[in-house]
Structures are given as C-alpha cells and as structure tokens.
Amino acid sequence: MKYIAEKYPIITDRIVTNPHEGLIIGNGDFAANVTFLSHEIILYLGKNDIWDSRIDNNAKNQTLTQDDLIRYERDYGFEWPENCDNILTRFANWEGKPEGVDVVFGSLAEEKERCGKLVLWFGGFGLRRAGRIRIRHCGFSNTKIYAKLNIKNGLLESTVDLGRSKLHFSAFIHKELNTLAMKMSLEGDTTAIQIFVEKEPDYADPTMPLPKVELLTDHSGTITQLIPGKFDTPDFSWSIASSFPETVDKNSNDKIPVLDMAYALAQSLRLNDGNEITLFTGISTDRENYPDTRERAIRIMGENTIERYNRLLAESEKLWEKYWESSSIEIEDKELESVWYRNLYGFACHMKRGAQAPSLCANVPIDDNCDFHSRYTWNHNVQKWFAAALPVNRLEWYDVFADLIRQHMPTFEYFSEMIFGIKGGVYCDLSSIPYAPPHRAIVNNKWGRALCHTGWLSLMLWQHWEFTHDTEWLRKNAYDYIKKAAVFYSEYLKKYQKEDGDIYPSMRLEEPGWCKGFVGNRNNVTDIVMFRKAFECAISASEVLGVDEEEREDWAQALKKVPEIEYGWTEDNQGWYAFCKDWDK
C-alpha cells in the first residue's frame, strides 16, 4: 500500500511559463517551484523563515480599542460599512466625528504617505524569495517539454526535446537536508547551456543592500543577502551555496570556470552526447541559530559528484517511504485517491517539524511582493494548513502549529490587554508577521475583531489530545494558550456582556462591517460556538492535567453565560439557524 503514491505522478507535456502552475519539490522548509520555458528551466527557491519583518507601525496608535468602538457607536453613531475597507476614508467621511479622533490613526496615515498604494495590502514586508536557478538552453517556441514529478519520492524528471538532441534534467530536495540536487545529461548532438544561480536585487525595497556574491573555488560560490535591522527588528541574512560541474567529462582535464556576476554565479558549458553533470545547492538562514549561515550553506551544499547525487536520492527515497507509511490508504474512487496522495505530497513540501510554519504563500514566493499579503491570517488561512493533520495521521504538522502559536503568544497577550484591557488573556487578531515585536504588530479594527478567532485555536489544540491522549504534549504545547483563551473570554463576558446576554460587538469572520446599533454584530454563530468550545476545552484540559481548579469553576460559570444558537423549522419544514442575533434584519 505504501507504493500507491507512485501511481499518481504530476505530469506535464507542454511548456509551463506561469509559476502558479509550476511543479513543486521540497522538504517542508526549503522548496523550489519549477517552470519550463521554451528556452530555459527556472527553479524559484523559497524557505519558510525568509521574512522581511520590518514594519514601521505603532500598534497602539493604529488601534481602535473595544471600549472606544462601543463608545463611538453609542455616542456618535459610528458605523463602518462592509464595503469600506480603508479606515482613513471611513473616518474622514464620518459625520459627527468627535474632535481629535484622527490622532488615533496617525501611524496609518504616515504608512500610507510612505508606501503609497502599497500600504498594508501590498507592503514591502513579508515573505521574501530566497533566489532562483536558471538553466538556459537553445530551445525555441516550438520546443517540446515532458516533465514528471514522482510524488512517491519527490523526484522531478524532465526531457527537453531540442530536435537533434534531448536534454534530460532531474532535481530533488533531500527530505531532511536543505540540499537541492540536480542532474543533467545530453542525448544527441552537442548543445550549449548556461547555468545561473542568482538572487536578484530586492525591488520591493530599493534601499535593500545588493546580494554579496563570492567565489569559493573555480566551480563553486555563495550568495548572501542581508536585510538590515530596522523598526526594532534585528539584522537578518541568508546564504545560498552552489557547486557547479567542474568538467563535463570525467575523463577530461578541461575545467569550466564559474563567474561571479553582479548578483549571480554563472557558468557556460557545452554538453556532448552521453555527458552527465550535477549541481548542488545548499541554503541556510541565521534564524536557524547557527553562528555563520554562509559556512553552514557550504556544508549543506557538500561535494559535487554523481555518486553523492545517487546516495542522497536513495536516502531521501527512504525518508519519503517512511512518510507514506503513516498516511497511505486505498480508496475505491481513484480520482479521490489521487487527490489524497497529491495533497499529502504538497503539504509535505511546505510543512516540517522544527521549521517555520508556511504562511499564505507557502514557502515558494516568486516575487519580493506577494500577489496577496503573505502574512499569517488567523481567520481560516492558518487553520487550513493544519485542519487535515489529524485525519491523515500527520502529528508532526501539529508540532508546527503549536510552534507557530507559541511564536505569536507575546503578540496575542499584548493584544488582549491593549485592545480590550484584559490582562492574563490572549487575543488573536486577523493577521500577524513573524519575528516582529508585539508593539509593531498589525491591528485590523474591522475584520480582526472577530472574537471567534481566539477560541478556534483552542479547539484545534485540544483536538490533538482527543486524538492522541498525549498528556505531555498537551502540557508542553497547548495548555498555556487554551488557558489564556478561556481567561480572555471569561473576562470579556464580565466586562462587556449586559443584561440582554449578548456577546458583542464582533464580526462573523469578514462580515458585515460595523453596523449602526451593532445590528449583525451580536451573538454571531461563530462566536457562540467558539466561546463555548474554548471554555469546554479549558475545563477538560485542566482536569486532564490536574491544574487550575479555581479557574475551572470560573470557566464553568462563564460557559453558562454563552447564548444558545437559535434554530428551527419553517412552515414548509426547511431547517434554519440564526447566523447572528439580528439574522432577520
């Protein structure tokens, strides 16, 4: 059964120019998005922890606190329609606005002035591309391409039909090591190729230093990119090391030099019939806690021999085999079976225990500005990475999930107190950026005010214990957040719940905006579900661990204050439920 994955390779028999249709190889931390143009093969390199986390933002100045939100609506009739995303526009057009209120949003105005149209949605901060590799050949617009990605072992094999010759190209990323191994061979008439390993200048931030290109030997070199520290974020750098073929023929003494160009390592060579060459690339960042990322990238790159290529491939295949042993099933519906295996392969390319969790753009960005914001978005985009982990028996993905939450705990705690005045709790806003200090974090005063986000994470963490009964994992990785989420919800009800029992004001994820009288912002079904689940999870977890008996009683009392979801049947016997208290308005 473990070889079923072999039945579902991903195959293309045509040119692939769009990176969004590229073939992915990766190990969960380091990945490459491979495209096939008529004249070259491109590998876009990405790594989950290569983030520009510098953001010129003051979270306090950006925040509309919950107290002020309620006061502005009550005293001044404030509303913020769903179709008005820009808070500056909203406040500029607010009739009856109290004097001086714009000062609260001064940092946003400064950011808009500084970034122009790039503000917030397409800002310079975010996941950065690591670099790319290009293999240029003499193909034309009618060049035929065949490529096969074997998801069983992560090996990409392709053939470029050049007419009188065929260029065979294969590549894989080792399942554990951050080593990219490539092999090329020629069948037929002599042909010329050029190999470029490059990190282009950063065009999202024109002040970014140029990458530093250094030769190691005649046939190897490194590229190092520095992102200078700014806005309370320290310096960050990463290095790529590549070893090019020393010669095209092992029986020849003719050496082929590598050139160090402005932002690339480059080599030109001619392949003859039967020639076989290899190229190895290693990558390392200083977020991996090694003193010298360049030296580590060189070690990961390693020696350049065909024997090493074969050895690493055999090692990687065994690791992939072990991976499939944990999640292999057989389904009668073969189309559904193919989806199972291909999706499991895709997830394995982007998530790995001990590595930074993938964000919206996974770990294969193709630009320095992502097509959509590349941050972590906590109103389902983060959750979707991990929702399938337990059903497909991938417990290591939950370690990635727990690490991500732990990484953001200081920001969640900061938000709880800053936005709501609640100490000892956690609050999960709409989105976040890793490696940035809490006081620089982004607050979304509309879509970020969906109270359900916080409890959603509690429920997912508790589900790990329900699946495994691993008490130590619960204690180490989950309970701190589960407890603080329950504290936040309990204190929220004490502070904001009135005699009518409403949980308000809040969003149903990304609707309906802030409405007059908070119509549509009360007792949202998402909040009712997650408040209840958060209390139930905290009570159960504290019982399992034998801790926090007094808090447990407080949570039990708070649970009784959570409204029931309204539901019923229509006259023609159709079921309904109320998605908010004002569902019929």
Structure description:
The chain is of the alpha+beta class. The chain folds into 2 domains: 4-53 and 125-350, putative glycoside hydrolase family protein from bacillus halodurans (Beta-galactosidase, Chain A, domain 5); 376-577, Glycosyltransferase (Alpha/alpha barrel). It contains 13 helices and 24 strands. The protein has helices at residues 59-62, 66-76, 87-92, 106-115, 293-301, 306-325, 334-350, 383-386, 395-420, 452-468, 471-496, 525-545, 549-559; strands at 10-12, 23-26, 30-36, 40-47, 51-52, 80-81, 126-127, 131-136, 144-150, 155-161, 165-173, 179-188, 191-198, 212-217, 220-227, 236-243, 259-260, 264-271, 276-285, 376-377, 431-432, 513-514, 567-569, 575-577. Strands 1-9-10-11-12-19-16-15-14 form a 9-stranded antiparallel beta sheet. Strands 2-3-4-8-13-18-17 form a 7-stranded antiparallel beta sheet. Strands 5-7 form a two-stranded antiparallel ribbon. Helix 10 (452-468) packs across helix 12 (525-545). The model is unreliable at 103-123 (pLDDT under 50).
Defining traits:
585 residues; alpha+beta; Beta-galactosidase, Chain A, domain 5; Glycosyltransferase; nine-stranded antiparallel β-sheet; seven-stranded antiparallel β-sheet; 13 helices; 31% helix; elongated
What is the residue-mean pLDDT, rounded to a whole number? 91
Number of strands: 24
Count of DSSP H/I helices: 13
DSSP helix fraction? 25-40%
Largest sheet: 9 strands, antiparallel
Low-confidence stretches at least 5 residues in length (pLDDT < 50)? 103-123
The CATH class of the largest domain: Mainly Beta
Q: Which word captures the global form?
A: elongated
Provide the β-strand percentage band: 15-25%
